[in-house]
Amino acid sequence: EKYILLVNPKLSYCFSLCYHHMSEILDKIGWASAVAQGLQKPITSALKMQNSEHILYLLTDRTGGLKKHGLVIGLLKMGWKNLYLFDKAGKCVQKNTLCVLDFYVHESMQRQGCGNILFEHMLQDMNVKAHQLAIDKPSQKFLCFLNKHYGLNQIVPQNFFESM
Ligand SMILES: CC(C)(COP(=O)(O)OP(=O)(O)OC[C@H]1O[C@@H](n2cnc3c(N)ncnc32)[C@H](O)[C@@H]1OP(=O)(O)O)[C@@H](O)C(=O)NCCC(=O)NCCS
Questions:
Q1: Which domains, ranges and CATH numbers included, belong to the chain?
Q2: Alpha-carbon distance values, 67 to 95, 101, 155 (Å)
Q3: φ, ψ at 151 (rounded to 5°)
Q4: Is the CB of 120 within 6 Å of ligand 1?
Q5: Ligand 1 atom with the shortest distance to the CA of 109
Q6: What whole-number percentage of the chain has pLDDT above 70?
Q7: Atom of ligand 1 nearest to the CA of 76
Q8: CB 57 near ligand 1, within 6 Å
Q9: What is the pLDDT of residues 28-82, one digit of tens each?
């Protein structure tokens, strides 16, 4: 029984009602994602969500877990950044770009289509196509994922400069 939960702390009454539970969950999955990507500290945490305009999608299994209280399977965090981008010809343009900021599925659930459920939901929700997204240092797994599900196998490497 999989559900996508949209976490937007600024709007969500639920988030304020169960703040402690939610922050514990976000901090834990944020850390798990960081470890999976070999990062020193998490990109996603309850505090960071509170102070940002980022959009977080959580894939949950409502009846999962030992006590059947539900569990979180994965996360996908999106956000807009004003970036200087280079096209294939090396021409530079400044563009407000939708970026994949964090993407993680729990190790026990990888390669079972969960990442695809999250990603597809986000694409529809945000009305974008996969090739329009910017990704900061995509992992090998993510590159394989993009190739498999969206036929994207030609990346245009960037030296990202964020505009102030
Ligand atoms: C990237 C990630 C979110 C994909 O989630 P997922 O649930 O495994 O994705 P799906 O099941 O929908 O798609 C599976 C496809 O993703 C790619 N993939 C997933 N795990 C992989 C692995 N260990 N090695 C190579 N490719 C992998 C493959 O293309 C795979 O298809 P295949 O099993 O037929 O080879 C997940 O692998 C993950 O959390 N990785 C660790 C964190 C990470 O790298 N995040 C990206 C940050 S830039």
A1: 2-150 (3.40.630.30)
A2: 47, 32, 43
A3: 65, 20
A4: no
A5: 7
A6: 88
A7: 3
A8: no
A9: 999 999 999 999 999 999 889 887 889 999 998 888 887 887 889 999 999 999 9
